[in-house]
Write a structure and sequence with these properties.
CATH topology: Rossmann fold
Structural class: alpha/beta
Number of strands: 10
């Protein structure tokens, strides 16, 4: 059996001193698409933040894309995030530059040097999300769904081993949510591994995948 991309065993998640989730055991393997559901305040975002190094893992064991979360140091975090694609609810695009330059900024920040290769990569990820003709547009000229597509393209730039999508459709209307979800489905079909936090049950019904739930300080699989 291959090693899981994400492995948690008896892990507890804290926000400062407060215990948010306890005794989480979870394995995600290459190619999995998993939903993380739960009410607001149930710990979904805290779990996500622990996975991308925003919150420390102090109890239990956890590895993600080859990094030991217990031993993660400040200087490791940029390297961890290069192997993760993170998609946020509020897009987090830089409003002072166009779509192309938003993506270029990320490539430069993660150590790319060759402008020719950067251009090819940017065009490739924009094509994947159906935004190839919009590279010259500023974020404020785009709809919410288009901004989220750009955010997904940005998450794909460094060929991540795992995509963490934290409520990626949370700010979108139902029709746009389905469009964004179909983009994520396509990416999943290409072999990418995705963990997506959501409270949109309509999406889960339309695109069923393995689902885990945060409730009462626990995380368990929904059957």
């Amino acid at each position: 059996m291959s090693k899981p991309i994400l492995h948690l065993k008896d892990a507890s998640i804290f926000q400062q001193e407060n215990l948010v989730l306890s005794d989480i055991s979870l394995d995600i393997y290459e190619g999995d698409f998993m939903y993380l559901i739960g009410k607001t305040g149930s710990g979904k975002s805290s779990l996500m933040k622990t996975l991308y190094g925003d919150l420390p893992l102090n109890r239990g064991e956890g590895t993600i894309v080859g990094f030991d979360l217990k031993k993660l140091r400040e200087k490791d975090i940029p390297y961890l995030r290069r192997k993760l694609g993170i998609v946020f609810q509020d897009f987090k695009l830089l409003n002072d530059r166009n779509v192309y330059d938003n993506l270029l900024f990320v490539l430069k920040a993660t150590g790319w040097k060759d402008l020719g290769k950067m251009k090819v990569k940017i065009n490739e990820v924009l094509e994947k999300v159906g935004m190839k003709t919009k590279g010259f547009k500023m974020p404020f000229q785009l709809s919410g769904g288009e901004q989220q597509r750009v955010a997904i393209a940005r998450a794909l730039l460094n060929d991540p081993e795992l995509i963490l999508a934290d409520e990626p459709t949370g700010n979108l209307d139902p029709k746009t949510s389905l469009e964004v979800m179909s983009v994520l489905e396509e990416i999943s079909k290409s072999g990418k591994t995705i963990l997506m936090a959501t409270h949109d049950y309509a999406l889960i019904l339309k695109y069923p995948h393995k689902t885990i739930k945060c409730e009462g300080e626990k995380v368990f699989e929904v059957v």
